[in-house]
Amino acid sequence: MATKIYQAYSVIDAARSRISKSFDEFEKVYISFSGGKDSTVMMHLALDEAKKRNRKVGILIIDLEAQYADTITHLNAMVEMYKENIDLQVDVAKEKKWKRFWRSVSGVMTGVAIVEGVIIYSTLK
User: Fold this and answer.
1) How far apart are CA 72 and CA 76, in angstroms?
2) Predicted local confidence at residue 91, as pLDDT
3) Each residue of 49-92: pLDDT tens digit?
4) How buried is residue 88: exposed, middle or buried, by Cβ count under 10 Å (0-12/13-18/19+)?
5) Across the chain, where does the E strand assignment appear?
6) Residue ranges of the chain that CATH labels 3.40.50.620
7) Which residues contact 110 (CB under 8 A, 6 or more apart)?
8) Is 86 helix (H, G, I), strand (E, B) or coil?
9) d(CA 74, CA 121)
10) Burial class (CB in 10 A: 0-12, 13-18, 19+), 7
11) What CATH number labels 11-93?
12) Chain Cα centroid distance, residue 40
């Protein structure tokens, strides 16, 4: 069993550092926002950094037409909270609009979905 190695910084500090580096290295920063707990934390962290730098973040929300009413309410509240610092892309995902394929990049399977011209990447390790 592997031994856990503790670092001198917290998980939240590490996340903020990585997000800051993304803003340093990329002209445009994009995140996907589902309204779930994980993407909510990511959106707060990314938009806090965007506000500090007076920048905008591209936000992709895909309406699966199956979200709970409370999720939609939360999505709308988050968009309203950060409206000055976001470029919003909302799409309704319908089965016929999706093209999915997988390819191996350096031994890592990378998923690519194209939704009406919006390209979404994910990686399986």
Assistant:
1) 6
2) 56
3) 999 999 998 888 877 667 788 888 898 899 889 989 988 766 55
4) middle
5) 29-32, 57-63, 86-92, 98-105, 108-115, 118-124
6) 11-93
7) 102, 103, 104, 121, 122, 123, 124
8) strand
9) 24
10) exposed
11) 3.40.50.620
12) 9
- Euclidean distance between the first and the last CA atom of the chain, given in angstroms as a whole number: 20
Residue 103 above 50 pLDDT? no
pLDDT per residue as tens digits for the range 16-52: 999 999 999 888 888 888 889 999 999 999 999 999 9
Two tokens at 51?
A: 């506000």
3-state helix, strand, coil in the chain (%, to 5): 40, 35, 25
Distance in angstroms (rounded) separating the CA atoms of residues 25 and 67: 34
Residue 23: count of CB within 10 angstroms of its CB: 17
Residue 116 has pLDDT above 50, yes or no: no
Note the pLDDT of residue 69. 83
Q: How many CB atoms lie within 10 A of CB 124?
A: 8
Structure tokens at 24: 């340093």
